[in-house]
Write a structure and sequence with these properties.
CATH superfamily of the largest domain: DNA methylase specificity domains
CATH architecture of the largest domain: Alpha-Beta Complex
Strand content: 15-25%
Distance between the termini: 11 Å
Low-confidence stretches: none
Number of domains: 2
Number of strands: 21
Radius of gyration: 23 Å
Helix content: 25-40%
Strand order of the largest sheet: 2-10-7-8
Largest sheet: 4 strands, antiparallel
Mean pLDDT: 93
Structural class: alpha+beta
Shape: globular
């Protein structure tokens, strides 16, 4: 292994913090304000970023305009998370974020990204956070943070290995986004656009069980799904773990979990459960509404319905409670109206849903395998334990 150099972050990069607060959202604007909540595991969720006006963009980029290849660091909530700008978006920094722009020709941008993403670095950053109520990183500590890196050739080799895995993961995510869009299009075609006049109009509660009853004894360990691990853009959760049951919503494979509390519902947090063992009962937050299709409908239809625009608008309109703590109501969700196709049409729909779900599950399994491989390699590459030199 070649010699590794140690240096301060501000010796190899321009480090610029955000001095702004919040700005009014502007629908359909191309100017994006990146918040700490948009940053996770080296990626930035541009789809859900706040859109701001041109005036706000110009004001907030007077000191620096984030460019392709720049890294955005969250100073708090979550402390030390970073994301990478892969394309030339019109981006400005949101509150409590920091732009890191590599200026040293001997430092590979993507290497620095993976260095900051690595578990050891994350833990080191978090250990430097301060604050009695909300933990945060001081700019002085960020600028002085130590970075270790090998030769430029080795950096490029390390970044190539890890980015190739991430590119494959991104491709599989894109494929699943297309598959989900196909499922939603087919649902709208069969249940809305091509519905016949003599089809029966029913409520969701007629064709699906809302919050079905399952048995799970207290103290029994079972798969637990946190709300934060439910995606806002795909059916598969990021992670889950075993935990002794106390109290919460219970579910099994073939159920859809709909986040009912603000802002999770508005953000689209929805999950179709496929990750449990056979006959296992999983559990999670009381802020889930569980939807399970009745026979003869394919189970995946519950997820497709829950993701449909009409249903989401209906669910959001059912929310009650004080500001900031509003929740959709299960009994009102049951009243969502749709048409019930005849048996022969349902059979055709079920075949299409089964085909789409099989591909979605296969891609999700591949993503999980590749992510595990990347997470295993990352600390070994960053410590020099694995040598990538040819």
């Amino acid at each position: 292994m070649g010699e590794w150099r140690k240096c301060r972050l501000d010796e190899i990069a321009d480090v610029v913090d955000c001095e702004h607060k919040t700005a009014l959202k502007v629908e359909n604007s191309v100017y994006l304000s990146i918040r700490t909540s948009d940053i996770l595991n080296g990626k930035i969720d541009f789809n859900n970023a706040n859109r701001v006006s041109l005036e706000t963009f110009k004001e907030w980029t007077r000191r620096a305009i984030p460019q392709e290849g720049d890294i955005i660091l969250a100073r708090e909530a979550p402390v030390g998370e970073v994301g990478y700008i892969k394309k030339n978006y019109h981006v400005c920094l949101g509150q409590r974020t920091v732009m890191i722009s590599v200026k040293d020709a001997n430092v590979e941008k993507q290497y620095l990204l993976y260095y900051l993403v690595s578990p050891a670095t994350k833990n080191d950053l978090k250990s430097r956070s301060t604050g009695s109520v909300v933990q945060h990183l001081n700019m002085k500590d960020i600028r002085a943070f130590e970075v270790r890196h090998p030769t430029l050739q080795e950096q490029k080799a390390i970044a190539s290995v890890l980015s190739s895995l991430d590119d494959k993961i991104d491709l599989l995510h894109c494929q699943n986004n297309v598959l989900e869009a196909m499922a939603e299009t087919l649902f709208r075609q069969w249940f809305v656009e091509e519905a016949e006049e003599d089809w029966e109009e029913v409520c969701l509660g007629d064709v699906a069980d809302i919050n079905p009853t399952y048995t799970l004894k207290k103290g029994i360990g079972s798969s637990y799904l946190e709300m934060r691990n439910v995606s806002s853009s795909g059916f598969y959760p990021t992670s889950w773990y075993s935990r002794e049951f106390t109290s919460g919503m219970k579910f099994q494979n073939g159920d859809t979990l709909l986040a009912r509390i603000t802002p999770c519902l508005e953000n689209g947090k929805t999950c179709f459960v496929t990750f449990l063992d056979d006959k296992e009962i999983g559990w999670g937050s009381t802020e889930y509404i569980v939807i399970r299709m009745k026979k003869p409908y394919h189970p995946f239809l519950s997820y497709v319905i829950a993701r449909s625009e009409d249903f989401r608008e209906f669910a959001i309109s059912s929310m009650t409670g004080s500001s900031g703590r509003q929740r959709a109501q299960a009994n009102m969700i049951s009243d969502f109206h749709l048409f019930a196709p005849p048996a022969q049409v349902i059979d055709k729909i079920n075949i299409q849903m089964e085909c789409i779900l099989a591909k979605l599950k296969n891609n999700a399994i591949q993503v999980s395998t590749l992510e595990n491989m990347r997470d295993l390699l990352l600390p070994k590459l960053m410590s020099g334990e694995v040598d990538v030199r040819v």
